[in-house]
Amino acid sequence: MFTEVMLALVVGGVIYFLVQKSKRPQLKSEDGWWGEGTPPDREEDVSIRPYTVRTDKEELEDLYRRIDQTRSFPSLEDSQFTYGFNSQYLQNVVSYWRHDFDWRRQVDQLNKYPHYKTNIEGIDVHYVHVRPKNLPEGVTAVPLLMVHGWPGSFYEFYRMIPLLTQPSNPDDIMFEVVCPSIPGYCFSEAPHKKGFDSVCAARVFHKLMKRLGFQQFYAHGGDWGWIVTTNMAQLEPKIIKGLHLNFAPPSKPGLPMVLSIMLGHRFPKIFGFNEHDIQRIYPVVQNLVVESVKESGYMHIQATKPDTVGRGLNDSPVGLAAYILEKFSTWTDHDFRNLDDGGLTRKFSLDDLLTNVMIYWTSGCIISSMRFYKENFSKGLDQPHSKMPVHVPTGFACFPNELMHTPKLWVQQKYRELKTFTPMARGGHFAAMEEPELMAQDIQNFTKMQEKRKK
Amino acid sequence: MFTEILLALVVGGVVYFLVQRSKRHQLKSEDGWWGEGTPMAGEEDLSIRPYTVQTDDEELEDLYRRIDQTRPFPSLEDSQFNYGFNSHYLQKVVTYWRRDFDWRRQVEKLNKFPHYKTNIEGIDVHYVHVRPKNLPEGVTAVPLLMVHGWPGSFYEFYRMIPLLTQPSNPDDIVFEVVCPSIPGYGFSEAPHKKGFDSVCAARVFHKLMKRLGFQQFYAHGGDWGWIVTTNMAQLEPKIIKGLHLNFAPPSKPGLPVVLSIMLGRSFPKLFGFNEHDIQRIYPVVQNLVVESVKESGYMHIQATKPDTVGRALNDSPVGLAAYILEKFSTWTDHDFRNLDDGGLTRKFSLDDLLTNVMIYWTSGCIISSMRFYKENFSKGLDQPHSKMPVHVPTGYACFPNELMHTPKLWVQQKYRELKTFTPMARGGHFAAMEEPELMAQDIQNFTKMQEKMK
């Protein structure tokens, strides 16, 4: 009798433990429907439709008319970019946009990769899908999903794509790349209902990849792409073979992080802090608090009144450009705030910058892009997914001028299987666009490591 | 020898004490110059030039063209004003603006009071100056300066002015009213140099009143007008006979404020809390923290990137209207966020609301109006003036739906001579425009009390 009870307890305990272990780290999510009105009765439309980016004379004439009627107002003397986008330099950018920027040519550039749309949960989701050409015999391409952020787009990845799908180095992995637009961004339809947050985007992208036939894949993201791909790893850890990030600010500062902030200056080695970590973190109030407050106004208003702040931006291309390009200046290097031209073209070409702006302008998506902030923050900072760790192999590319610096210790708090942590040579927030070679190389290194393990 | 030294020490001590005492409560401010480039040599232009608000066909055609080319984008289903200004209702407002709103008639309305401009510290300062007509024999009008805030203007005071300059009640005081536009707002020129904060505005307005010949005067303000008039009282306490406010959130929560928050629910009488105070303050996190965070996004971005956020608003009248009118909805009553029309016309007429928007639109001042936030906040919340108390007789009109509720105890922390504290029957942040009779009455009561005392 005693033996049976003992055995039952042990077996019960083991079963309980196993169930708890598999239960614990998985994020749950219910289906949603984001179309207008009520879902139609008919079967879901799972067709995949090729999509071509287009423009026409009318669109350009409208743009030019609006640019020509912009009402200028000078920035304060000697203010550079410290009050926001400087009026002088804005004039330069706008002149280029009006007279030299060739949107038709840029549209051709956009179309050099195949675009598609497919309807998921009631809305059309846009994505770019690039299959490698000339795959060697017996080699399968490794699928990679890359998710953009705000105020970026799929276009940020364009210079990286060839380095991933047609790498020059024969030892490098050949990727098959999918770059979707988050619903509400760019050429993806905007949700019509409240509540579309990063977990919804993650679920929608899982459905996309399933629809495209992928059983497993790698995911890369920065900015919102970081949270969306992280949520994807939390929703279906078995499907995400590896997660590569360049942005991962801690959602909840746990004890190790707090201790490291308090003592890291004196005992850097204990916390694994290198010189760059020290430089970026200390003095703490200036670097972690003041800098954040200085640069998070956009986040605050977008997380509370997106329909208000976005309204004017959808009528004024110049206003939209100022709003978006200010980030490409300041988030590439904080010190650019003190430059008359915001250092905008030090790391980016005006053609690339304006192409990204045009994607927001022609799609009219600025308001819905801002709503993503409200959907994600309005339930508070205590979302289930922000408390949940990630158990998928992760690689982190630590760019020196990233908006929020995260030393290895902090990344490890959430990403429990951090396989690579690479201090990168240079680059800021828009690293994929700013340093495509460096980023592609790190994705290669991380993926190669993971793929070797699988074999 | 010893006696002389002792006497010297005592006299020195007394002089030091007197000097310190007079020093302590007075805000200091240096002259500034805000024009373009470097100041020209030559005498300062002190002339006062009459100003007429004008409009023309071109201005209206441009406005209509822009309205007609607005690119709509629908708000989320069932979102009312929770994501900001609702697209449906915006469409209605814009239709009225395009078809029915008569800007020419509103301009005539604006011109029914005399406007002027005068150059101070290098920039043209605009103001409305209304002298009472038919002053009885031997009665001098009491001068009153009224300062607006953001996103308001001098126009907010228009319904109040006749109640102050031509009161029906013979016992009421007859005021002479001056309503300036803060530099960077409305028809006042915007500063061209960095650093124009509320203390600068206060100093400029002191110069204005001096130029108009006033030795002493009363001052009224809400929103930015609160800080500007408070700074005026701190700069020259002898000149401000009385300070009347409807907005005065504590800049630094001192011990009494903190204790009252912690214990006020259990011991309301101890802190002088009435039922309305309790309702507005508790639960603390929801009412003081969450609500503030929900409604201060505009302040955050304007205090850091005014040139960025304002740029599009200067091209898109519809965008500008949404941005400004959202405040006239939400700051009148937070619950209006849950209404499809934001409750906008419950307390205001579209004509008045759009007239205010048109002042921002036609003057193109939205960017400079936003810069005032950066100038005031970027040096931090620890400015000298925010730590200094105010020793000028003060009257406070406590409107029930004001953005930040301040019970009497909190107001007293800074305003050490609080003479009147009136819980008002109804009204929110734009109280002067929403409840002009109530506000005018409170100004009358406060001023009458002060004038009798003199």
TrEMBL record, chain A:
Native organism: Oncorhynchus kisutch
Main subcellular location: endoplasmic reticulum
GO molecular function: cis-stilbene-oxide hydrolase activity
Localization per record: Endoplasmic reticulum membrane; Microsome membrane
Superkingdom of origin: Eukaryota
Catalytic activity: 1-(4-methoxyphenyl)-N-methyl-N-[(3-methyloxetan-3-yl)methyl]methanamine + H2O = 2-{[(4-methoxybenzyl)(methyl)amino]methyl}-2-methylpropane-1,3-diol; cis-stilbene oxide + H2O = (1R,2R)-hydrobenzoin
Protein name: Epoxide hydrolase
Catalytic residues identified in the record: D223, Y373, H429
UniProtKB/TrEMBL annotation, chain B:
Gene3D superfamilies documented for this protein: alpha/beta hydrolase
Molecular-function GO term, any one: cis-stilbene-oxide hydrolase activity
GO cellular-component term (any): endoplasmic reticulum membrane
Keyword line: Aromatic hydrocarbons catabolism, Endoplasmic reticulum, Hydrolase, Membrane
List of catalytic residues: D223, Y373, H429
Reactions this protein catalyses: 1-(4-methoxyphenyl)-N-methyl-N-[(3-methyloxetan-3-yl)methyl]methanamine + H2O = 2-{[(4-methoxybenzyl)(methyl)amino]methyl}-2-methylpropane-1,3-diol; cis-stilbene oxide + H2O = (1R,2R)-hydrobenzoin
Location(s) in or outside the cell: Endoplasmic reticulum membrane; Microsome membrane
EC number: 3.3.2.9
Pfam families in UniProt: EHN (PF06441)
Epoxide hydrolase N-terminal domain ranges (all copies): 48-157
Record gene name: EPHX1
Family from the record: Belongs to the peptidase S33 family.
GO annotation (BP), single: epoxide metabolic process
Protein name: Epoxide hydrolase
Membrane topology type: Single-pass membrane protein
Organism whose genome encodes this protein: Oncorhynchus kisutch (Coho salmon)
Protein purpose: Biotransformation enzyme that catalyzes the hydrolysis of arene and aliphatic epoxides to less reactive and more water soluble dihydrodiols by the trans addition of water.
SUPFAM superfamilies assigned: alpha/beta-Hydrolases
